């Protein structure tokens, strides 16, 4: 990949100028009520939500006169967050700060800041601060949303057919095993991947089409029990206006088509073929997503107007087969072009059944405001890529921090997003080249060799939550900001997932001052019930730490031992008068389960 393309990849989003915007965004008022409270090692900022905001930007200045600048939690992507509170751990204990909050109507702009409020982060003492977490176990509760279940990301699915090996492991076999595990153990239902029109699927055959490779791919996927999210891209060489414009080591073509009619014909032919092969009732459950991250030049060599034309043509082709088939986009980086697509579709009557976009390093923004603004309030919201970092080969991908980050993001998305798709299932992933070693900071939830990373363990903990969500309240230093909980009930089992996390990636390896002593209150639980704890922390369920000292490619015996040493283990936990005491370092998570004693 050229150096300028790598720079665009790392930056993720280039802010557009006012002249490039197709319409004016509302001038949102700032939050009226803003507070900042200093705690040990942090400041927690809270505010009143603003109607029409997709997120909020936190601003900070040192002392009484320092300039207000965005708080950077080192995500490498959008710094705005979807909702309060925000915990700032990038501050220096003992230093006075001023904070303000600005409303964000769309990712490329924000409104004027709120009034400023002062706070001083506190210096740590010898004993961790206490936090109280109270669960109403007898409440009626509500249905617990599961935004991780609908979708997972994957390397391009043609790799399911690949016989090559990485580190002695056959790529196609292990990718299939990884996807099967996502379905069988975690209940994931669909897979979203790039490049169904890449050269290696050979969909153009002279003057006609050949979908034989696509059939082999989707046959394998459906046999697992998974359905595809059909990302319409990249550009077949035979249709490209400039086939020299490529991305990734495998040379995916990113140019517009030479003929939009030819693109229409290809999309329509594919959809017709899928309906004929798998049946209309089946394909009506699939989603068709137009392209990938066209708002980044590295993924689309054309203009925004040309991509909007591609969307119109693609949507028309899908709907020409059956109006009920679902099509959407913009499948954009960093929540860009959402408003652009919706404004365009509203003006031209183009269908948008779902809105899809991506972000990394923060919980996903609340784009319901954009949908409502343009009259698409009924459209589904699919975050078809999300993760702890947008950067390949970043060690944070293998860390416990990333696993706890996954928990925080899924909790934030619950109830407001239809799918939050973690990118990706397996380290068999080769956008910038195949894995150079066993642990290399790969995007996968599972390694080459099929071992669970902390992010997979986090998904496992989520999957053990019950069907009924229970109310939770907090008190103490960091309660509800550093320390969060997701509580549930399922017949005769109470499950409470607690974690300690800051978004500040400079503290990914831990920060002793952020450790908290947590007392979990569960009044009303049968005193005869047994409590267990399943922990994810540095050194516990922690593949990277445990694998230290192993060769670049461990042997089969070493992998088996590593899997055993890093598996999740439940241990008995003492409960007194409906209370459980825990110490939670940052980062860490604990699943507390209570139920009748067995045997």
UniProtKB/TrEMBL annotation:
The keyword Hydrolase applies. Coiled coil: none annotated. Residues 134-362, 377-529 form the Glycosyl hydrolases family 39 N-terminal catalytic domain. Keywords: Glycosidase, Hydrolase. Belongs to the glycosyl hydrolase 39 family. This is Xylan 1,4-beta-xylosidase. One of its GO terms (biological process) is carbohydrate metabolic process. The active site is at 293 (proton donor). GO terms for molecular function: hydrolase activity, hydrolyzing O-glycosyl compounds. PANTHER family: ALPHA-L-IDURONIDASE, BETA-XYLOSIDASE-LIKE PROTEIN-RELATED. It holds the Pfam family Glyco_hydro_39.
């Amino acid at each position: 990949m050229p150096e300028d393309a790598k720079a665009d990849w790392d930056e993720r989003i280039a802010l557009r100028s006012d002249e490039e915007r197709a319409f004016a965004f509302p001038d949102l008022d700032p939050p009226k009520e803003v507070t900042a409270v200093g705690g040990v090692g942090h400041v927690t900022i809270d505010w009143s939500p603003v109607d029409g905001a997709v997120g909020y930007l936190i601003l900070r200045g040192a002392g009484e006169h320092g300039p207000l600048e965005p708080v950077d939690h080192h995500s490498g992507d959008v710094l705005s967050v979807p909702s309060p509170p925000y915990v700032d751990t990038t501050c220096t204990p003992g230093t006075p700060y001023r904070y303000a909050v600005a409303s964000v109507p769309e990712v490329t702009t924000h409104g004027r800041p709120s009034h400023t409020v002062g706070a001083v982060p506190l210096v740590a003492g010898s004993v961790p601060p206490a936090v109280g977490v109270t669960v109403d176990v007898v409440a009626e509760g509500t249905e617990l949303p599961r935004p991780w279940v609908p979708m997972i990301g994957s390397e391009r699915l043609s790799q399911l057919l690949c016989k090559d090996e990485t580190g002695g492991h056959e790529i196609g076999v292990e990718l299939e095993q990884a996807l099967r595990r996502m379905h069988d153990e975690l209940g994931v239902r669909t897979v979203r991947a790039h490049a169904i029109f890449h050269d290696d699927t050979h969909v153009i055959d002279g003057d006609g089409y050949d979908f034989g490779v696509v059939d082999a791919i989707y046959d394998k996927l459906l046999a697992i029990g998974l359905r595809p999210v059909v990302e319409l891209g990249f550009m077949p060489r035979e249709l490209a206006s400039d086939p020299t414009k490529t991305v990734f080591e495998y040379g995916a073509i990113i140019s517009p088509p030479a003929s939009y009619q030819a693109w229409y014909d290809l999309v329509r032919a594919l959809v017709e073929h899928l309906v004929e092969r798998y049946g209309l009732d089946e394909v009506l459950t699939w989603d068709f997503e137009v392209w990938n991250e066209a708002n980044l030049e590295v993924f689309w060599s054309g203009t925004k107007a040309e991509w909007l034309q591609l969307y119109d043509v693609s949507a028309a082709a899908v709907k020409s087969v059956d109006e009920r088939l679902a099509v959407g986009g913009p499948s954009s980086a960093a929540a860009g072009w959402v408003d652009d697509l919706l404004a365009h579709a509203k003006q031209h009557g183009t269908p948008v059944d779902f809105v899809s976009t991506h972000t990394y390093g923060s919980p996903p923004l609340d784009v319901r405001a954009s949908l409502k603004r343009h009259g698409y309030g009924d459209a589904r919201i699919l975050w078809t890529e999300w993760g702890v970092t947008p950067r390949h080969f970043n060690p944070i991908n293998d860390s416990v921090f990333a696993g706890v980050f996954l928990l925080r993001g899924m909790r934030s998305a619950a109830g407001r997003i239809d799918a939050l798709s973690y990118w990706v299932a397996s380290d068999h992933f080769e956008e910038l080249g195949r894995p150079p070693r066993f642990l290399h900071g790969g995007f996968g939830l599972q390694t080459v060799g099929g071992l669970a990373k902390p992010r997979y363990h986090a998904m496992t903990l989520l999957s053990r939550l019950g069907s009924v969500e229970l109310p939770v309240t907090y008190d103490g230093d960091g309660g509800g900001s550093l320390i969060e909980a997701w509580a549930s009930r399922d017949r005769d089992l109470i499950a409470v997932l607690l974690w300690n996390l800051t978004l500040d990636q400079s503290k990914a390896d831990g920060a002793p001052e952020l450790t908290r002593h947590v007392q979990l209150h569960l009044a009303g639980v049968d005193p005869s019930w047994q409590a267990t704890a399943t922990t994810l922390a540095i050194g516990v369920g922690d593949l990277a730490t445990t694998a230290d000292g192993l060769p670049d490619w461990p042997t089969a015996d070493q992998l088996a031992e590593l899997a055993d040493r890093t598996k999740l283990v439940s241990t008995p936990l003492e409960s007194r008068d409906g209370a459980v005491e825990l110490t939670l370092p940052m980062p860490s998570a604990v699943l507390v389960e209570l139920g009748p004693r067995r045997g």
